[in-house]
Design brief:
The protein is α/β, with parallel strands linked by helices. Helices cover 38% and strands 20% of the residues. The strands form two sheets. The chain has a six-stranded parallel sheet, sandwiched between helices.
């Protein structure tokens, strides 16, 4: 059994993003428990600005958790949320704060059946990283989560204070949520379908497609109160194409590995939001349909 009273933070899903945040929280002195499918002994974060290497406290059996912990970071991709159900049922109680480092808009609804009445907060993830091996991450750029500016999130931020991973409470949370969803709908599905990394947006046709996807997302976002301008989207394509290290996207990595993608969390949530307010998003719907068909094992 783990003495959960000594754990400040449990990270469910210590993959590329989860291990990055777990390692830096542990490096600054926070007591971190990694809840993993595969064992590993240490965190290795290869990063130009924020490298880390230290021992990891890892569990692979949720039955070893004796009682709830104060904070949980869920860094599993949305399509694997149900697989974390037993972890969450044991780690969470009514006083637990659960922060979802997941893409899309609907993390609260996805996690609610598993968290025993805990408070769930959707975060906005900026951490470009790739999992090399369990606990071993190649970090390319960024390393923060936007969260609503509440007392609970300010306390959560202190678990990472002064480390290479940041929690950023903001009063502009809706804007940041939709800004990131726009970038996700622009890049994730297209890189997966083309089987190319972000540098492919240097192509004129890819840049045009990306511009149309981002404009659709930000049109919906603006209607829902986000401070985003759909007429400025073309200027972001060069920035996307010139990301340091030419990384892929999470959906690209999943498609290349033959794994299910998070198409519904990213594209499905965007389309559902658009339909609720009567805005048409035909390019987004097209990418969503292609990704969904690619994940459907009923068709050869």
């Amino acid at each position: 059994m783990v003495d959960d009273q000594t754990v400040d933070l449990a990270v469910v899903g210590p993959g590329s993003v989860g291990a990055y945040f777990a390692a830096h929280a542990a490096q600054r002195g926070t007591s971190v428990l990694a809840c993993a499918r595969r064992p590993f002994d240490e965190y290795v974060i290869d990063s130009e600005r924020f490298p880390a290497r230290l021992r990891a406290n890892v569990l692979i059996d949720p039955s070893a958790v004796a009682r709830p912990v104060p904070h949980v970071l869920v860094a599993l991709k949305s399509q694997h949320t149900a697989e974390a159900g037993e972890w969450l049922r044991r780690l969470c109680g009514p006083e637990t704060i659960v922060v979802a480092a997941q893409n899309g808009l609907e993390a609260e609804e996805r996690l609610a059946p598993f968290v025993n009445g805990a408070t769930v907060v959707q975060s906005v993830v900026y951490c470009t990283a790739e999992l090399v091996a369990p606990g071993h991450v190649q970090h390319y750029s960024s390393g923060w989560l936007w969260v609503p500016n509440t007392p609970e999130m300010q306390r959560f931020a202190q678990l990472f204070a002064g480390s290479g991973a940041e929690i950023r409470p903001t009063d502009s949370y809706v804007t940041e949520l939709w800004r990131k969803l726009g970038f996700n709908t622009t890049t994730n599905g297209v890189t997966a379908l083309a089987r190319k990394r972000l540098a492919a947006f240097a192509r004129e046709d890819m840049a045009l497609l990306g511009t149309r996807l981002l404009a659709e997302a930000w049109t919906v976002a603006r209607a829902l109160g986000a401070d985003l301008d759909p007429t400025t989207t073309s200027q972001y394509m060069t920035m996307i194409a010139e990301q340091p290290g030419n990384p892929g996207t999470s959906t690209y990595y999943d498609r290349m590995a033959g794994r299910p993608t998070e198409h519904d969390a990213i594209y499905g949530s965007m389309v559902r939001a658009a339909r609720r307010i009567g805005i048409e998003v035909p390019v987004t719907e097209t990418v969503w349909a292609l990704l969904a068909a690619g994940d459907d094992d009923r068709f050869a």
